[in-house]
Amino acid sequence: MQHLLFAAPRWAWLFGLLLCLGLARPAWAQLPSTAVVDPDLTRPQTDTARVAPKLTKKQKREQAAADSALKTERLFGLRLTRPQKALLLAGIAPGAGQIYNKKYWKLPLVYGLLGTLGGVEYFFQTHYTDYRYAKEQVATGKVSASQLANARTEPIEDWDSAKNANSTTIIESGIIFYRRNRDLYILLLIGGHGLQMLDALVDANLHDFDVGKDLTLHWQPALLPVPGQLVPGVGATVALRVK
């Protein structure tokens, strides 16, 4: 094979070289201009902040008109977009945003979450109130020391959940414990309310989102430029077609 290569005429070598250059030309055209780096070329300064172009009065009017066109809903005499109305309804009454979005199956989740958090918060609040009342009774002398010491065997019914507390240490511990948990569940209740508001907002934004069968995904092999190399790499391009 080696002898055959050396025996080939010069015109055949020249023709093969031109053919290789012609095939490589499309690959060179796809390479970015930064593929060959000039050592004498200094990188420009990029530490300056990019300033957005100032809108003209006409562009501002067009943008305001486009925003106004989206406000197709009304609430308390105000023109709102669909997401804004869903968010306000959910903020006013839990579950109202889900009803507006016609997501009725989410109502048990919303009311179950908020109802559970509200019930636990009420439990800790009432127990905290009882222990605070017991502390006031002891501090003002309305309950004697002997009554407090015998509270384990003779409960003080007026104290409700704290009726078996037989020392000031137990009363103080109860106050700290129930107050801490009450504050925690208040925050969780606020977070649950905000979560159902966020859910209503997302559903309203996705109301007009296209999820039909016309959404198709296509892929095909392609030669992709590789920075710093003359020969392109093998890859694939993915295209999402929407109607």
UniProtKB/TrEMBL annotation:
Pfam families: DUF5683. Residues 81-238 form the DUF5683 domain. Keywords: Signal. InterPro entries: DUF5683. The lineage of its organism: Bacteria, Pseudomonadati, Bacteroidota, Cytophagia, Cytophagales. This is DUF5683 domain-containing protein. It comes from the Bacteria. Residues 1-29 form the signal peptide.
